[in-house]
Amino acid sequence: MDENLKQTVKAVISPRDSGLRKIMHEYTIYKEVLIPKVQKAVRPIVKDKTIAVYAQQKWMIDKKLNKYLKNLPFHPMPFHNQSVFIEDKDGKFWIHFKTKEGEAVCYLYVPAKYRSLIEQACGEDNPVLGQVEIVEDHKYGWVNCHICLRLPKPEPYDPKGWVGVDVGWNKLATSILTTVNPHLKFSSPTFHGKQFKSQIIQLRYLLKQYARKGKDWKKWNFRLKHTIKYAVGVVAKEIVSKAKNLKAGVAMEKLTFKSTAKGYMVPRYKLMTAVKTLCEREGVPFKLVSPKNTSLLCPKCANIKSWESAKNKSKSIKEAKKKFQARIRKNRNRQRFSCVDCGYKANADIVGAMNIAKKAFNRTADGAVNGMELVSMPKTEEASCLLGGLCCKALKADER
């Protein structure tokens, strides 16, 4: 596994910089000479009749190459880390490029939030500095520098609890904090992405209507994809910042790319990947748990009565599992959750997040949970916790 974390930092070079002339001369040759020659060289090879290949295969290659070469002039010009380095002089950053006409030195304007990262990449032959790409901004005339940094991954801290995250049908995501001190306690429930719900529903409706009528539906598809992408980024940042402020880890369901996404506000796998990447960057512990029965089991009693009843009435474990699954499916009714055994009622998305957070605590051989002792709560003892503004009975720890 790669121990480095790749992060791209954006900086700019002024159009009045004296060292920019050498770079722009090479940049012009790259755009106006090299790329057109590559485009002209590819075409005769694809059209060559002496190459005996099925016509459809040639057509597919021609289509993909032309699509790439058509967009190539808009691609940035890359510089390898061996032909560029950054120098720090009294808090000011100077970037050195190696060109055919000699070395070009330019002053680099770096945003304040990236200055600490750029300082780690200063110096010649620095392994932190990766590839540097430059692209001209035709609107303002500045030259944008995209600097790739290979930063070491921060060590995750010891979590005081776990933030369970559930991606729901009606909410983009729901999170809740779970701690053990000494009993299982839930607090700080949050619904994420409320501001995007109506926007995503409206764009999906417009896309469907325009596609049925055969009108220009591609622009609505483009807007929907970018809205979902932006929503995933905002929700992931909210979840990770919440866990970091509470000194807790993040627990989510272990999903594959083929996990069903129909009916969900955002793709569940995409959100899980975004949260995982942010956790690695910020040093927040991240854990994946099994998604089995997270939205059906009662977090208070774990439906132990239903399981015991199914075992007593069945001849085999397989038959008991089927009866138990049929029984716990009655717990959930769309957005509401109501336990058939103990009568516990709550929002279904919050219950899913609670069960995910409970699974994040792993029991060890000596009965400890991630270094914290989990004491079983007597049946007569009750505590209170605040869930969504309502005072509820505390959830009892599993008795074994």
Could you list some keywords that capture this structure?
disordered C terminus; 19 strands; alpha+beta; 400 residues
Question: What does the secondary structure layout of this molecule look like, with pairings?
Answer:
Elements: E1 4-13, H1 20-47, H2 55-71, E2 77-79, E3 84-89, E4 92-99, E5 102-108, H3 115-120, E6 129-136, E7 143-152, E8 161-166, E9 173-180, E10 184-192, H4 194-213, H5 218-245, E11 249-253, H6 268-282, E12 286-289, H7 304-312, H8 317-328, E13 332-333, E14 336-338, E15 345-347, H9 348-360, E16 368-369, E17 372-373, E18 384-387, E19 390-393
Parallel strand pairs: 8-11, 11-12
Antiparallel strand pairs: 1-7, 2-6, 3-4, 4-5, 6-7, 8-9, 9-10, 13-14, 14-15, 16-17, 18-19
Short description:
This protein is of the alpha+beta class and 400 residues long. It has helices at residues 20-47, 55-71, 115-120, 194-213, 218-245, 268-282, 304-312, 317-328, 348-360; strands at residues 4-13, 77-79, 84-89, 92-99, 102-108, 129-136, 143-152, 161-166, 173-180, 184-192, 249-253, 286-289, 332-333, 336-338, 345-347, 368-369, 372-373, 384-387, 390-393. It has a five-stranded mixed beta sheet with strand order 10-9-8-11-12. It has a four-stranded antiparallel beta sheet with strand order 1-7-6-2.
